[in-house]
Design brief:
The structure is a homodimer.
Chain A: H1 3-37, H2 41-52, E1 58-59, H3 60-67, H4 71-83, E2 87-91, E3 99-103, H5 105-130, H6 136-146
Antiparallel strand pairs in A: 1-3, 2-3
Helix pairs in contact in A: 1-5, 2-5, 3-4
Chain A binds a DNA duplex through helix 4.
DNA sequence: TATTTATTGTTGCACAAGCAGATACCACGC
DNA sequence: GCGTGGTATCTGCTTGTGCAACAATAAATA
């Protein structure tokens, strides 16, 4: 075992920790968001991402990258949300291949109803992860990434 | 905006960063493992977890927790791997509800063939993430979690 | 201008996931 | 022993996902 092999193993372990924490949080979010707002985590992510945009427009492909989803999955995801009246498609004039999406009032409303659930579940999930020795260090590291004070 | 609201927002941002990095890495692993070893990330995770058990077997439910998968998904995942001859089910004597899984020689072999691909892809994905400003801090933090030297 | 090449988004298909219900088994109280 | 409640796994059904092929538009090039 040389230094090189150690680096490989450290990366692998970091990835396992990341995946484990991600899985834990996502599972809990999935359940609570589904129960409280009939939204999957990805659906919430889309609404949240749209609400966070300046000008409130995003193209399909941006959405696909933001959610780490395939193009086809994104199409259908937007279909579902559009069918529920939470967002609308807007053909964009300058590039007629492109399609913008925009939250409707109903979408904004649902997002704001869901946000407390999301935030509370996230807090609870992180607290649970704190109690798991392998995950605790990563939980501690997270808030330090963007702490600005 | 008080201190409390800040904490909520910091957690949310940490979660978005975590999810984004996870999605990026998983996508790349998915592609490369599928191409090189016909394994999905979850399948690789199972084989890896079993190999790491060092003589000990794993029960279905442990596997479900290790992969953040539902019980039914775990059943079918094990079915797939068993059908390919990569692992075997072992009824355990003391608790006849329980089922242990164990890697076959063929499973060990495939895992060892896949590991270099996995490790290389992971390194590449992390390097790419390094170039994305929002992700870089988390990438830097990861190896510090388990560094032991 | 005409023709190729690249990009953006949608659809057909096969497969993996979760939920709810079923089955087999353990543990405890009577 | 018998029944009750809880646990471990499997199956039927519905839904979401990725890949590959496609249509429409833009950009590049001759």
């Amino acid at each position: 075992m040389g230094i090189k092999d150690d680096a490989v193993e450290v990366r692998a372990q970091g990835w396992r920790t990341l995946a484990a924490l991600h899985g834990l949080i996502e599972s809990e979010l999935e359940r609570s968001l589904q129960a409280e707002a009939q939204l999957s985590v990805v659906e919430y992510t889309v609404l949240d991402a749209l609400s966070r945009q300046d000008g409130w427009h995003m193209r399909m492909q941006q959405l696909a990258r933001a959610t780490a989803l395939s193009a086809s999955a994104t199409t259908r995801l937007v279909n579902r949300l559009e069918d529920r009246g939470l967002l609308t498609r807007i053909l964009c004039a300058d590039d007629r291949r492109g399609i913008y999406t925009e939250l409707t009032a109903s979408g904004i409303k649902l997002l704001e109803e869901a946000r407390p659930t999301h935030d509370a579940t996230l807090e609870r999930a992180l607290a649970e992860a704190q109690d798991i020795p392998e995950l605790a260090p990563l939980v501690d590291a997270l808030p330090k990434l963007h702490a600005h004070a």
